[in-house]
Amino acid sequence: MSRPIRSLLGSFKVAFYGIRYCIANERNMRIHLSIALGVVFLCAFYSFSAAQYALIVLLFCMVIAAEMLNTAIETVVNLLSPGYNHLAKLAKDIAAGAVLICAVGAAVIGLILFCDPGGIGRLLAVMGAHPVLFFGGAIGYLLLAAAFIFVPEQKQNPRQGKKDE
Ligand SMILES: Nc1ncnc2c1ncn2[C@@H]1O[C@H](COP(=O)(O)OP(=O)(O)OP(=O)(O)O)[C@@H](O)[C@H]1O
């Protein structure tokens, strides 16, 4: 394999390692992903335009990327300032605030999109016609999401990471 291709594949490998690390160790990341999956299910009841789907995908990416940047900032702060430090607190609090702003913004836009009467009507129609299937599916989703969100974590000490990961 040529050097540029190996280097490109290497960049993907480390990026996927970062994504996997956040999913395995950040509860908030798993909450965002569970909500995203729920939203994908809900989309089946709505007839969104291509632009509305694009907006939903953009919101998923925005919130998840913000959460990952927050984790990156927390990790660097832990590396540089393991003890109590007012500046460390400030950096973490500001990063957490940024995630909150993205998540609240996404929730507000989501509410506006999903308040569409046509979609709500279809949702209620399916609920009325197939209650067992509908509520069984909803409970199944909630149980799986809870199991995913509260999976035990094995947070790594950043100083112990391997160099090539
Ligand atoms: N080194 C530190 N010095 C001072 N305050 C800190 C320090 N580390 C954390 N804090 C405070 O504790 C809060 C929680 O920090 P922590 O590192 O546990 O992040 P978190 O928001 O709980 O992230 P997560 O649970 O996603 O790892 C921070 O927002 C900050 O206010």
From TrEMBL:
InterPro entries linked: DAGK (IPR000829), DAGK_sf (IPR036945), MFS_trans_sf (IPR036259), UDPK (IPR033717)
Gene Ontology annotations for the cellular component aspect, listed alphabetically: plasma membrane
Catalytic residues (positions): 67
GO biological processes: phospholipid biosynthetic process
Localization terms from the record: Cell membrane
Molecular function GO terms recorded: ATP binding; kinase activity; metal ion binding
UniProt binding sites for substrate: 67
Binding residues for a divalent metal cation: 26, 74
UniProt keyword list: ATP-binding, Cell membrane, Kinase, Lipid biosynthesis, Lipid metabolism, Magnesium, Membrane, Metal-binding, Nucleotide-binding, Phospholipid biosynthesis, Phospholipid metabolism, Transferase, Transmembrane, Transmembrane helix
Membrane topology, from the record: Multi-pass membrane protein
Family, per entry: Belongs to the bacterial diacylglycerol kinase family.
The protein's name: Diacylglycerol kinase (ATP)
Organism expressing this protein natively: Harryflintia acetispora
